[in-house]
Structure formats: C-alpha cells, structure tokens
Amino acid sequence: MLRIEKIEVSYDKLRVIRGVELHVDMGEIIAIVGANGAGKSTLLRVISGLKRPSSGTVWFYENRIDMTPPHLIVELGIIHVPEGRKIFPSLDVLENLYLGSYKAKAKERRNQTLNEVFALFPVLRERRKQLAGTLSGGEQQMLAIARGLMALPRILMVDELSLGLAPLLVVEMFKAVSEINSKGTTVLLVEQNVFNSLQICNRGYVLENGSVVIEGKGKELLKDENVKKAYLGM
After folding, report:
1. What CA–CA distance (Å, rounded) separates 131 from 96?
2. Digit-coded pLDDT (tens) for 23-60
3. Domain boundaries, the chain
4. 146: which DSSP letter?
C-alpha cells in the first residue's frame, strides 16, 4: 500500500533521515518507534508532502508521491494527525470536525462519519458546541484523531498519540487506534511509547539517529534484548 525506498532528508546541512526503507500493507497497524529526535516525525512529514526528501522515493500503490503537494496526498486518502494535535482552538468541536471533511467524498458522507466518530469518542458529542481550545489534553487528542477520520483515510498517520496524556488516557487512546484499525483503516503510528505501540501493531520499525536499526513483528520486538534494554528499561 505504502512503500518508502532509501529516503534521505536533511535540514540545512544536518541529515536527519538516512536511507530509510519501510512498507505498510493494507489493513496493518505499523509502529515507528524510537527516542525523541530519531527522525520519526520527519518521516511522516515526508509521506504527507510537508517535507521533500533529498533522495529516495515514496510510493502509494503505483503512484510516486514524494514530489506531490500535500493537498493532493490528502485526496489520495493519506491523512496526517500531527504531533501537538494542531486543532483550531477558537472553533468549536463540530466546526473542527467539519474542516476534516472538506474533500468532496468526505463531505458527502459527513453525517454518517460524524456519527461514527461520536460513537468512538462519545465525549466529543457532549462537547460538540464547546470551543476546542477549552478541551482537556485528552479530549483535544480525541478531536485531532476524529478530525482525521472525517477525511475518510485509507491510511491514518498519527504522530505521538500518547504525548502528554495521563496513563489511563494513554490506554484508552491505544484502544481507540485498535478499534479504528479493526473497522478497516490502515494505521501508521509514530510513538515514543514503545511498549504500548509494539503491543498493538502488526509490525514495527525502531528508528535511531535517522536509520532503521531493527524491524519485525510487534510482539517479537518486545522480546528483543536490545529493545528491552534501550526502550523498556529491562
């Protein structure tokens, strides 16, 4: 479904992605894990067209997309939920959700999708007329994901799902991602929370200093001695 081949990315003269290769198959949850500064967020920015690679290619099915503008990548069904949520604080919850469904196909199905995201996150239905900036951190993360779902993603890319959330909310958010995937949406998850990410993913990639150092099935990576020592404190 999605293929990244030998991607190199630099900011000025600093190389932050070094020859990364990975793939995402339809229906999977793929986790890209690693420490802060490993290059995880930059990789998502490349896929969504926000950052051009200096070399390498990105393919979505048979379409090469590494030079495609972001709005056309959205039209293909690749939806990016960025780190820090990036909601519109001065708009209410419903207005934020409507902005997620501006594509023609998404607009046609807006009411149906709205009911689906309210079923997934019931608190958003209760808060639908509340200004997004007044929501709690957990509610804002729910809104960011729900807004992404309103665009009818074929691949939902979520950057730092659990960042800044209380432990109980972290568990709830990972359950929500599993539920989203169970209903047919492919998920690409970037996370510092290695344990929870590898628990729910089909496959995982460990990124260090811009390079993939380990890859494999999620639960197998949890047993890897290097992963346990470096990321799980074991």
Report:
1. 9
2. 999 999 999 998 888 899 999 999 999 999 999 999 99
3. 25-51+68-77+154-234, 85-152
4. H
The amino acid present at 107, given as its one-letter code, is K
What superfamily does domain 25-51+68-77+154-234 belong to in CATH?
Answer: P-loop containing nucleotide triphosphate hydrolases (3.40.50.300)
The model's pTM is 0.93
Tokens 């079923």 correspond to what residue? 119
Evaluated on CA atoms 179, 180, 184, 188, the torsion sign reads negative
Instruction: List beta partners, residue 7.
Output: 20
**Contacts (Cβ under 8 Å, ≥6 apart) of 70:** 48, 49, 50
Query: Could you read off the pLDDT of 6-21 as tens digits, one per residue?
Result: 999 998 888 999 999 9
Q: What integer pLDDT is reported at residue 233 of this predicted model?
A: 66
